Sequence to fold (219 residues):
Amino acid sequence: MRIVIAEDDPLLREGVALLLRAESLDVVATADSPDTFLAAVDAHRPDVAIVDVRMPPTHTTEGIAAAVEARRRQPGLAVLVLSAYVEQAFATELLAAGTDRLGYLLKERVGRVGEFLDALHRVAAGGTAIDPEVVAQLLTRTRSDSGLERLTARERDVLALMAEGLGNTAISERLFVSEGAVHKHIRSIFAKLDLAPTDRADRRVTAVLRYLEETQRRG
Fold:
């Protein structure tokens, strides 16, 4: 796995690079600005880019913009975005163009090495990894959304784990229920959120994007 890291904090940038190299992963370049990051993507054609949300010069949206541009230049590039705290508008902007090979984690998750590496490998394999704290805050803030009020407490639990990118087997293990029960809950969630079986979009992520979009509208 070839990785480029874009992070303007030198301690975090080098710390993540050392961590990944200790796991025998190939960090081909590190960057401290959007321009050097995009140049590294062009030069090295990595499998995964780890990108800070806020980067120079204004420390506002540069990281997200660079991540979107990197995926435009290299379709199929996996991107794992790191953020100091939950920023729903940025998450929505990143995920709006598609959810394959995308992750959004809080920086504190890097210190939980197992969880961080699991998210990295999941995104590299084509999946989605959304920080559970992001999911929890968004679900809490949007409880009056159409369809959400119809979900049971257990269905909310399943939806939150779906949003993290977990598959049915992992969800069943986390909740200590059978895979058949998980499958039943997911069918019920889709029905209550009016996500038709014929919809070709990724319904697992579409459910979470609905919360993201509604939260952004409410500001």
Observations:
- The chain has two domains: 2-130, 135-218.
